[in-house]
TrEMBL record:
Subcellular location: Membrane
Positions of the V-type proton ATPase subunit S1/VOA1 transmembrane domain: 279-310
Cellular component per GO, a single term: membrane
Keyword annotations from UniProtKB, A to Z: Membrane, Signal, Transmembrane, Transmembrane helix
Name of the protein described by the UniProt record: V-type proton ATPase subunit S1/VOA1 transmembrane domain-containing protein
Membrane recorded as keyword: yes
TM ranges: 283-303
The organism of origin for this protein: Eruca vesicaria subsp. sativa
Top-level taxon in the UniProt lineage: Eukaryota
Region forming the signal peptide: 1-26
Amino acid sequence: MMMKIQIGVLAFLVAISAIEFGLTSANTVPAFLWSPHLQSANGEVDEGVNYQVMSAKDLVGSVFTQGGWSNLLCSEKKVEQAVDVALVFIGRELLSSDVSSKKNSNPALVNTLNTLFTASNFSLAFPYIAAPEEERMETLLLSGLKEACPHNVGVRNIVFSDSCFVEDGTIQKLSDLQSFKDHLLARRETRKEGETDLVVLCSEGSESAQSHSERESISELVSSLEQAGSKYTALYVSDPYWYTSYKTLQRFLAESGTGNSSVGVSTTCDELCKFKSSLLEGILVGIVFLLILISGLCCMAGIDTPTRFETPQDS
């Protein structure tokens, strides 16, 4: 009987582990760091994959330390392998499950990232990044830059897109993809030797009709740099959850402002909402049944019946 109880406890632990794995895959995003111009110390191709679930802040720290961005972007630190541009693409579409599964929501983007990643001399992959909930990725990136370069951040060499949420008014912002190309071309002529520009492009999401897709933006900017002969290192990281909640809030405020808040506001549950509700419901039901099963086994194990009965005496 005790063996059955141990098997039940083991099954419970396995179920919890599976649940934790499902939650990790559903709530994490991938990040890729690569460069065709940087190499490891021994001159060989340097590739690595960090399978740990890490926070977005830890990712930024790894980019500046393992990726060497603190040496590239801090003007007081001189390095032998300098690059001209450090590109950052903050997407809104990919989840960790899209990269690991053959059936993903954006195969063209995954294939483009895979091609750039595998063809580079230096590459690091972070498949499981906990998506930031309170701060946006671009804010964490800027904070990490200020921590890595406390004495001289070099703000004049930093450019963000208008779609990025950055409160620093001294940072230059560009409106569209063509303005980024023009800026990179102009900086190629005026950039001093040893300087590295930080260029951050935030995706506007698939709901914006005027925006380029993430695959198009990445491909065109990388091609523009390669044609100009500029050396670069690039980081792609996805941040879809803040974008989804921000757009929902934005639609709610817009509809409330028109006076149709009671009629126009959609209260339907989207795919992410349905997935979370079904998952939580399954977890609660599963825990209840497991507790009932374990309680029943314990009660059965506690029953003490006699092994033999006395023979009744004849009167």
